[in-house]
Amino acid sequence: MPPFNNKNAHITLMAICNESIDLRRKEMEKAVKKYWPIFVLPTVAAFAIGFIYPFIQGVYLSFCKFSTIKKAKFVGLANYQYALTDESFYHSFGYTLAFAVVSVVLINVIAFMLALALTSKIKGKDIYRTVFFMPNLIGGIVLGYIWKTLLDCFLSLIGQPLLALNETWGFVGLVILMCWQQIGYMMIIYIAGLQAIDTAYLEAAMIDGATKLQTLFRVKIPNVMSSITICLFLTLTNGFKLFDQNLALTGGEPAHKSEMLALNIYDTFYARSGKQWKGYGQAKAVIFCILVIVISLIQLRATKSKEVQA
After folding, report:
1. How far apart are CA 92 and CA 105, in angstroms?
2. Tens-place pLDDT, residues 70-90
3. Diameter of the chain measured on Cα atoms
4. Cα(306)–Cα(232) distance, rounded to whole angstroms?
């Protein structure tokens, strides 16, 4: 009888295990291909009921004068004609655009700087990451009222009018609030991007004698462009869609001068009486949706073209 060979037995056992795993994987793939509609249907149905149908209905109602959904009268483009000639809508758009630009720049620059600091060799990195991320866990409406109290107290101490009485301070307050809430979240995304950079690139740059700034702009930033794309998209869309913080912090005061687009639409739809106002508000909402989609697509195309292909 030939001597027992542990090595050959181990190889044979591994081959049998691999064959068994491949067989089970094929069986699972067959099951998934056969029963996938059962798993996908609930999600598709929920998405259709919760998003697609309301969206289509909302577009239709933007062409109607209505008080309730069942009492809608088709009026053609009248609602859009009003929306496109409403000065408050244009003011809100300009105010929102300025806010979005300022908040996007500040949030992403500060978040990226924090990510660079927290991926270096400093003590207590995990604690700092947690502390910076925590504001993102607070709800927007609660956050708005907290910062309203804080900023109004600060302004009263320095002899300035309260947020609701000063358009400029209202803008500054919204920017501070938005930065405080979102910097931590974007920081986490940038940290993930920086940690995913192949160390071979950094070692090659160090061997070539690259300075820290050269390494940052020639190696790190090009390799985290995918993270930059995501963060720019999130901050841009969040800046345009801001509603609850605006409602809690300034309420659009004074005289709707600090009113952003979402709050202007809400005010048109709910705060004014008459059937025609709901139609006007719905038309503004459709225009607003188109604006956000177009601006977001332009941003995505511009930043994705600069991403480094693996």
Report:
1. 20
2. 888 999 999 999 989 999 999
3. 101
4. 13
